[in-house]
Amino acid sequence: MKHPFACSASSQPLTILLVALSLFRVAVSEDGFCAVPSIVKGTPNSESRPLYWKVTNPTLAPSHLQDLPGFTRSVYRTDHALITPESQVFSPLPDWTNTLAAYLITPAMGSHFVMYLAKMQENSRSGLPPSDIERFICVVQGTVSLAMSSKSQRLMVDSYAYLSPNVEHSLSADAPATLVVIERRYASLDGHVAEVIVGSTDKQPLLETPGEVFELRKLLPTSVAYDFNIHIMDFQPGEFLNVKEVHYNQHGLLLLEGQGIYRLGNSWYPVQAGDAIWMAPFVPQWYAALGKTRSRYLLYKDVNRNPL
Fold it and tell me: pTM of the prediction?
């Protein structure tokens, strides 16, 4: 049974959260932070907006920061980072054509993987990752074509693909499309081979989450051939993580829908769709969903390998 947020938290965390929530409400309107106008004139209402609309149309866009010089919600610490849309910097993506990218997580932070947004324009085409690098892509806007071994298939919003290391492939777009891309050097195991996976989030089954109320889907197989997985986690307003996690795994997160409060270390951050988070090993982490709509985030997690 899913319990209401206000009735489930213990008194001390609840007090902290109520203070954070009161501050959060000051900053947030129904559409997002700071009550700024939408960056797209004549945008459809919430009922007709496409899935993950907020990732590519964030409330806080550079054009709306003219009266807030120097403002950003982005934060970088040695054990975590919050990278928000107003501080994303796009530049041409090496080896891709007609594509701009904003790197959100890289080894310069301390991660062992990269995560970036790739904005493909008309007649764009991807390049291959370096040797022995595995790649995961998820479409958050538009449609792309994935070509492998003379076969091609179209991937729409919420479709994804895992491309094994050294697999020949290309992604192309005839019209603007946006991908979230995760890449890392594959940690191989003798006798195990990671296969190419192509799928859609809505086709993945809900998994049991004992002691938790959120809904969980895993996009990759849990077999040991795969050294990371991608979780899609859904929270209804007022729902929150029961476990206050501290573990050896790294995380990369992109908030696809909704808004809430994320604890990272000893800091509490208001977050919304379009925000990216990096979590180093053993940083305390926790999330609560706020607002009026579902929160959904995509979460990278390294798995199936001995930390040594």
Answer: 0.85
